[in-house]
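User: Can you write out an input/output pair for a complex, sequences first and structure second?

Assistant: Here is one pair. Inputs:
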Amino acid sequence: MTSPMASWLAREIASQPALIEELLAREIPHIAEIVARLPAFSYIVIAARGSSDHAATYAVYTWAALAGWPVALAAPSLYTLYETPPRLDGALVVGISQSGQSPDIVAVVSEARRQGRPTLAITNDRNSPLGNTADEVVELGVGIEQSVAATKTYLAQLAVIAIFAAAWSGSTERLADLRAVPAALNATLQGTSDITARIQRYRDVAGFTVIGRGFNYATAFELALKLKELTSIQAIAYSSADFRHGPVATISNGSPVILVMPRGAAYADMYELALGLRQREADLLVISDVPEGLALATTPLPLAVAAPEWLSPLTTILPGQKLALQLTLARGMNPDAPRGLQKVTRTL
Amino acid sequence: MTSPMASWLAREIASQPALIEELLAREIPHIAEIVARLPAFSYIVIAARGSSDHAATYAVYTWAALAGWPVALAAPSLYTLYETPPRLDGALVVGISQSGQSPDIVAVVSEARRQGRPTLAITNDRNSPLGNTADEVVELGVGIEQSVAATKTYLAQLAVIAIFAAAWSGSTERLADLRAVPAALNATLQGTSDITARIQRYRDVAGFTVIGRGFNYATAFELALKLKELTSIQAIAYSSADFRHGPVATISNGSPVILVMPRGAAYADMYELALGLRQREADLLVISDVPEGLALATTPLPLAVAAPEWLSPLTTILPGQKLALQLTLARGMNPDAPRGLQKVTRTL
């Protein structure tokens, strides 16, 4: 429930369950057709920036784990600044961009076409330069995003990636998992409705560390970006594995650390990390559906339902979006006008 | 020149020019042989963690720009935690690990062998599990690294990657560029010999932002990791392109930002970013050989020589290593015993 005076950001966060339900109904059959007619390829290259790049990170795990595809993230500078695009033999090339406007993402897809490779665009505007360049286009169809910080377009990108994974896997069970997502999103949003009082303690912190692993590596990056964009507080994301290779040195008494640790194969490793961080007296914020994990938190951010791990990034980002929104308000800032940002970022 | 009482870290930083000279003499002919006998492949997958992962990021740019290979960074969790390794048809699979001990890196290379793909290890210990798993092994040969923070092994990994790029390019000019590196390293170290007085102002900052692009994207990540490991100060790395997609919101009056901007194709974009950061009154530390770029800095960190851009990451990291070392000493900390770190990190 959002009031008529609520920010665009609050309204767009609240709109997500219904939008994802519509997207699934529209795109499950459409993406099945695309998958059936795509020519042969042996690996996938994705070009994306910002939140779309975090969606691409979700694809790295999901398209490999469910469908066996190795995924490379393109370095767009190779196609633009350096004018040394690699040979793309064997690749399916995917561009992900909310606006479809970023020239560097278009350049990667355009070069792939020039080399005769199959191309796919995932965008909220099929009439954009990106939409007009790719062979196949999946439109997010979630309406214009008024808030500068991406929320509904990020979630819609994850949903499109999840549909491709299910389609490539050929598993009816995966499709059934997908169809349960809107109800899970609704329940999760309900369950995180009031965190205002509990997050006041973080209003003036110097920075957050955000950690996730595997499918939720993407969630850690996206949540860190929301915190930076909206609150101007520094936030840095890691996988639990990389975190132990050095960055753990930055954590001391009282450092706020957000752990994304829903149930699944990555949970045990995250739980062990949480225990170690407690010994360093870090201030833990835990996003999880597991009571034992939540019990380690200074600030538990419970997930009301348990999703299959491969779909959990669609639910785990929701308490993160709420946290960033509430912290922005607690700091007296306007969530619809982040400092020094524009909606469309055109990088070459 | 380092005193007998200097830290291992200081001695290992100083040892790099001679070690890289020996490495080039030893490995240029050896890597030419490996390149000649490798079976056909159409893209490259690299598995690495920590500083080795930053070397892998250098390979993403260098192996594409000089030799046309698309490079994917493996997500090791797919091979270990999730037990869902992708199909590696068409891939050359490379493991990079200083110790050669990390089970997840070994798991990726081992799976590639199981699938009949060619494999390569880049390690400082050919008798390690990684060295024993790969078909081809390039040993860094720089001696045991006593300091917990990687310096000479990181630089040696970059040198090995650069030799592969030159060998694949078939260009004698590239080989000549490479042979000039040890002299450039020497001159660069000489030119950064005393920054102690100038870096006192950063002794108690809350965090650094470090930005590089293209070939020096890797440098930004490696420098940020050195600062975190050694000084326990938060440090976060971006490409200039990603930085504009949100994180710029975290920069305000006095925020220290380190810009890695040697001459080359990425320079103009970095210079434009530097101008914008000056308007926000950020405190700029600039690593560059271009006087115009250095003139924008609060703290210029000049490079004494201009390297070809593809080799510049071997020189640009040196003022970064010195900065991290001197800041560690200025904070009264021991550079050889970073807080809570071990030399070998074993992640699954």
